[in-house]
Amino acid sequence: MRPNSFNGKLIVFSGIDGSGKTTQSKILHKFFSNIDISSILAFEPTNLPIGNFIRETILQNKQHYDPSQEALLFAADRILHQNNIVIPALKRNVHVILDRYIFASLSYQHARGVDIDLIWRLNSFVIAPDIAFLLDIPPEVGLNRKRSQLDWFEEQLELQKTVRVFYLQLVEQGHLILINATPHPRKIHEEIIEQLLARKIIRLRA
To answer: pTM of the entire structure?
Structure first.
């Protein structure tokens, strides 16, 4: 990954399904707005053409592609996103709060059998986040939050267990900061702010 050489900060939320990534992204975005820190919310897959294709065919219609094909599609969506949305915002000194990133590919596609080195190579262009959180939660808890959306609960449970293992490996390698995602969302947010301040990602005015 290339270092972020721009003024804005790239802040990433990762985690298995139901871990609260979207919730914490929105809470942080609102927090920044309340203290006059410029930020945008972003997510993957994106609402750009390739991201829409991924969402409509793979995620919503559950069409099965070879895992390597999925890895290529996610990487292609990511580079469009970076070039068209993420980098322009960072250049304007706007923080980017990103719901999912390369770490999702490293965990989900790897869990489906794609070689980890291939995933890294496909994503060699990406900008390293200034900070990336893993919102960690037991897979049973995460999927129970989404049970009404799932008609294949048991199959998903086994996948999410494997994905969580790979996410925790990324924590051990120093790519992600582990956050316990089982408490109340407000409590989780407070821990996130503490991490952002401790690592000088943000500074609060006196």
So the answer is: 0.93
Long-range contacts of 31-36 (CB under 8 A, 24+ apart): 31/189, 31/193, 32/95, 32/97, 32/202, 35/204, 35/205
The residue behind tokens 């990406």 is 126
Whether the link from the prior residue into 45 is cis, omega within 30° of 0, is yes
User: So what's the architecture of 10-198 in CATH?
Assistant: 3-Layer(aba) Sandwich (3.40)
Q: How many CB atoms are located within 10 Å of the residue 6 CB?
A: 19
Q: What is the pLDDT of residues 72-82, one digit of tens each?
A: 999 999 999 99
* Stretches in the chain below the pLDDT threshold 50: 150, 153
